[in-house]
Structure formats: structure tokens, C-alpha cells
Amino acid sequence: MKRTLTMEAFEAIPCAVATTGTFDGFHAGHRLILDRMKDIAKGIGGETVLITFDPHPRKVIHPEFPLALLTTLDERAELLSEAGLDHLIVQPFTPEFSSTSSLDFVRKGLVGQVGVKKLVIGYDHHFGRNREGTFAHLQEFGPVYGFEVEEIPPHEVEEVKVSSTKIRKALIAGEVEKAAVFLARPYFVSGTVVHGESRGTGLGYPTANVGQIDPDKLLPADGVYLVMAERLTPEHRGERWPALANLGMRPTVEGQKRSLEVHWLDFSGDLYGTALRVHFVQRVRDEQKFADVMALKAQIQRDEQTARAYFASATDSKSQR
Q1: 203: confidence class by pLDDT, cuts 50, 70, 90
Q2: 2-160 is classed in which CATH architecture?
Q3: pTM attached to this predicted model
Q4: Nearest to 226 by CA among 306, 319, 130, 122
Q5: What is the number of alpha carbons within 13 Å of residue 55 lying toward its C-beta?
Q6: How far apart are CA 255 and CA 248, in angstroms?
Q7: Among 160, 217, 268, 292, whose Cα sits 20 to 30 Å from the Cα of 67?
Q8: Which residues of the chain form CATH 3.40.50.620?
Q9: In the CATH scheme, what is the homologous superfamily, with its name and number, of domain 186-319?
């Protein structure tokens, strides 16, 4: 996948099959759009193009309303590349750009700078100044500027329309399994292993303290989770180890800040400084304050038994397929 900064820097291609949007999370609905684009491109000898925006438009238009992201820009680019996108254009979303009319965005941007011949958009998509542009407008612009437009209906999972907003709500509630269904993958958080207070080691359960997490990244609700941990190094990328994770304030040991700590099952080694990705599989329980450290240790033992039973069952299920 080729990544280009700004639409102006993009070299127009003869037959662009394009879409536009933030694609935060790159969820199941987004995948449906990209799959359709790929099918069209294959049939007409074209190339797929996504015009996305950074920062998220809402951060510019409504900065008074905090917005946590499901994916950082680099994570989104990685997922899109893996899914087979040909070109990613990252358009800076500035106050000036936000004032671009829907007509100018189509005429100067999509047609003039990208070379769009087929535009595929999601259901109820809006674009341009004050979100004035609609599918109806695109149908009017298409014949004038020489492109076709197709609207993809909303993707539904168990009769629920998938959206980034619904995924955020699920994660805030700790419902990581529901989020995984909407995303078509487990939700993940990326960071770097940093030195902590070594309290887990003292309890006999050493943990990797995941720091340097992007401040705009959405973290699920506090609690204990079953996760798969992945080292983001060239030789280990793609390898996922079963683990337990605690996300929260660690009230029993009077923690002073929210942290994400991962206890790998059957793994030993020095992870300090290693880039790590934590894939959330299932929520085990709320984070809670115990009477003392021994009570905490006893609960961790039970959590580990739960984790081992779950992952052993998951392994057996895969082997029987």
C-alpha cells in the first residue's frame, strides 16, 4: 500500500476506485466497503484509494467534546494495508479544509487530484462543509464530472448496525467480545513495555507494564481481561501469547495512576523496551480492592486458572476443526 500525505501530493491515477472517511477502527462495515472496492477495481483494471483525515474531523469541529479513537493513524494504515488497499491518502483536517464545499471536494479533490472513476461510500455518508454533501449530491455530480457512485448499505451483526460509536460504547462498558464481533477482530492497544513497581514479580506473577500508549487511544473499562499479547518486532510479529491483563488503578496496592499490566502465561524473558500489542479477548471481572496482598494473590491464582482453562478450550476447539 502506498501512503500519501495530502490530496495535493497524490499523483492522479487513470482509474481510481475510491472512498472517503475516517474509517476509525476499520470495523466490519468498513471492510465491506473495501471488499466491494477491490471487486470493482479488479473488474475494470483500477486501483483502490481511501481518502482519510487526520486529526479526526470531530476534534477540529467540536473540540469541546472529547473523542477517544479506536485506532491510531498508523494502526489504521496497517489494518488497511493488510486488507489489500492500494493507496491511502491522509488529508490534514484543518479549520481551513473543513470549510471546503462539497462541490469543491468532489470537483477539485476527488476528480482533479485523485482521478476517481468509481466512488463507493457507506450508508448515510456526509462530506464537505457542515456535512452538506450527501449521496444524492454525488449522484448529481457523477454524470457532470465523469464518475459513478455506489452506496453500500449498513452492515448488520445480529440485526445491529455496526458503527464506530457502538464499538466505543461497548468498550467503555468492558464488552470486548461484542466489540470484537463488530470489528471482525479483537480490539487491541499498542504500547511499549516500561519499568513498573515490580509488585507483580513480588507476588509471583511478573507482569509487563505497557506504557507509551497513544493518549487519544480508547482503553476499555477497568478490569481483568483474557488477552493475547504480541511483540511488535520483525521476528515475532504475528505471534500471540495467551495472557492475563489488569487495566486500572490497582487499588489493593494503592496505585497512583491507571495502568495496563500483562501477565504472560508460560513465558519468561526480558521485555523491557519491547513494542507490545494487547488483543482483548474476554473480560474476567471488575477490578476490585482486596483486604490485603495475600487475598489479591489468591484471586490472581483463580484468574490464572480461568485463563488457562479458557485458552486450553480454545486450542482444543481449533484442533477439532
Answers
A1: low
A2: 3-Layer(aba) Sandwich (3.40)
A3: 0.92
A4: 306
A5: 14
A6: 9
A7: 160
A8: 2-160
A9: Riboflavin kinase-like (2.40.30.30)
